[in-house]
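Build the 3D complex.
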Amino acid sequence: MDIINLLPENIANQIAAGEVIQRPASAVKELLENAIDAGATEIDLIVTDAGKSLVQVIDNGKGMSETDARMSFERHATSKIKNIDDLFRIRTMGFRGEALASIAGVARVELKTKRKEDTIGTFIEIENSVVKNQKPVAAQEGTNLAMKNLFFNVPARRNFLKSNTSELRHIIEEFTRVALAFPNIQFTLNSNGQEIYHLDQGSLKQRIIKLLGSQFESKLVSVKEETEYLNIIGFVGKPETARKTRGDQYIFVNNRFIRSAYLNHAVVNAFNEMLPKDSFPMYVLFIEIDPSHIDINVHPTKQEIKFEDEKIIYAFVNSAIRHALAQFSVTPALDFELDASVQQQEAITNPFTTEKKISAMNSGLYQTFTKSNQAHFIESRSNLEGYSPDKVFPENNLSQPLKEQFPEPELKKVFTPGENFVQLLQTYILTESDGKILIIHQQHAHERVLYEQMASALNGNPVAVQRSLFPETIELSAADSILLKELLPDLFLLGFQIEPFGTNSFIIQGKPADIPGEEQKSSLEKLLEDCKHFNTSLNYSNRENLIRAMATQRSVKAGTALKEKEMKDLVTQLFQCKVISVSPSGKPVFLEFRNEELEKMFGR
Ligand code: ADP
Ligand code: MG
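Done.
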C-alpha cells in the first residue's frame, strides 16, 4: 500500500505560514512593510488584544487593482521580483510574496483597497485561505487590511502566544524599528482604542526623541560618513545616556532593521572607556550599501544579513563612531544625574501624602496589580505542588532545556550543618555533615537560597519594602516599560515599590532593605536587562526570569571573603531549601565525599 499523499493546500499554507507569522508582531512587520513598499506617506496601525483579535494597517499608498487584490493572497505572489537576479538588487522591504498568503492561512482577513486611477475599490474577505466574499466597494485611496483572530484555526499556535503585555511589547518593537527607518512617513499606533504613538513626518532626530524618549533631547551625537563603498548616517547617544539595559540599539542596512552582534561590537567598542561598566549606549544607525554586496536572504524573517566583506564594514562603522564622538568632543560623564527638569516635577518635590496614596490605590493600575497578583498567586501555588526544581513558574509546559542538560536532582536528602566551616580560595566552603565532607560553591549555594526565598515571596510572603529617601525616576523605552509594567506586581512582592509616572517613566519609591540607595536604579536596570536576556534564550515566564535574574544579581560572588558566621548561616539556609544540590541555573551546589570513599582512597 502506498502511504504518501499530498497535503491539502490550506494545511500546507498553515505550515508555511508558521515561518512567517509567529505572533501578532510578525504580521505587524509584514503589513507595515507592504504599506511602505506601496509608497504610503501616512500609515495607521491599530491593534486590539495585543494583536490577537485585530491587527489592522491603513495606508494611503498606491492600492491594488481588483485582480492584484485577489492575487496578492496567493503563495509566491509578489510584484517585487521577477527573476533570481532581482534578489540581488532588491530595494523594497518585501520580496518573497509570502506574507499575505501566510496571514490568510492563519486568520480571517478583510482587505479594502483602491488605486488612484480607479473609481471604485475592491473588498475581499478570506478565511483559512478560502475567499468568502469579494465585491466592489467605495474606498479611500490606498489599502486597509485587517487581520482578525490570529490562529483561530491553529489552536496549538494560539496557545503558544504569550500574555498581552508581552505580545504588545513585541508589536511596539516592530513598530519602533519601522518608524525609525522612515521618519518621512507619518505613523500612528492605536492599541485597544488608545493612541500610543502619533508620529508626524519630521527629521530622524525628532523621530528618535518621539519614539525613544525625551531624555535624548540634546544628548544625540550625529554620525555621518560617506564613501564609495558604503555610507553611514544616524545618531549615537552621549555616554551619559547609556543605560544598564540593552534597549535602544538599532542598526539598519538599506533601511532594514538587522541584528548583528558583530556590528554592535563595532559601535560599543568605539565608545571605549567612556561608558560606565555594564552599560549600553543608545544608537540608531543606517548603513547604506549596494544591495549586490549583501545577502539579506539568509534568514526567513530577514533580520540577519551577510556582508561580502564583514571586516571592512566593522572597521568603517567603528571609525565612523569614533570620529563622531571625537568631533563633538564628548566628555565622559560617568555619573547618572537626574535631569534638572525631572527633579523639579511635582511628584518628586512633594512628599507622598495619604491623599495621593488613596488616589493611587483607586487607580485602575493599582487595581490590576492586586487582581493580577491573585491570579499569579493561584497559578504559582498549583505549580509548586507539582514542584519542579528548575522551573517554579513555567509559562507553558514546553520542553525544559536546562533540565535536559542536568540530571534531575536526587530526592531531597537531609543534611544537618556541622560545626566547622573553612573558606578556601574565597569561593569554596569546606564543611562536614553526617559523616561526609562537603565542598560547597558559595555563589551557587547563595543563588539557590535567594531563589527559593524569592519564590516564597511571590507565593504570599512578600519582602518588606523600605521607602527610598531619594525617590528616583527611571526613563525607559516603550518596549522596556511594558516589560517593567508587567513585572511591577512581582517586583512589589520582592520589595521594590515602583510607580508609573507618565508614559515611559517610573518612580522608585521603595526598595528591598539590603539594596543600597545609590544602587537602586542601576540594579533595576540590570534586572530588566537580565530578564530580557533570559527571555530570549529560554521559554520561562516573566516572573521566573525575574527571580532567576535577581538571585544571580544579589548572590555573594565567588572571590568574596566570608566570615565563619556568614558561612554557617549560608549553609544552614541552604540545607533548609527544597532543592539543595543544584543552583537555579542547574549548576552543582556542592561536591560530597563519604568517609568510606575517602578511606578507600587512602587505602584503609
Ligand atoms: P511581498 O511583499 O513579498 O511582495 P506580500 O504577500 O507581502 O509579498 O504581498 C504580495 C503583493 O501584494 C505585493 O507584492 C504587492 O504587490 C501587493 N500588496 C501587498 N500589500 C499592499 C499594500 N498595502 N498596498 C499595495 N499593494 C500591496
Ligand atoms: Mg510584503
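The longest helix spans residues 364-385.
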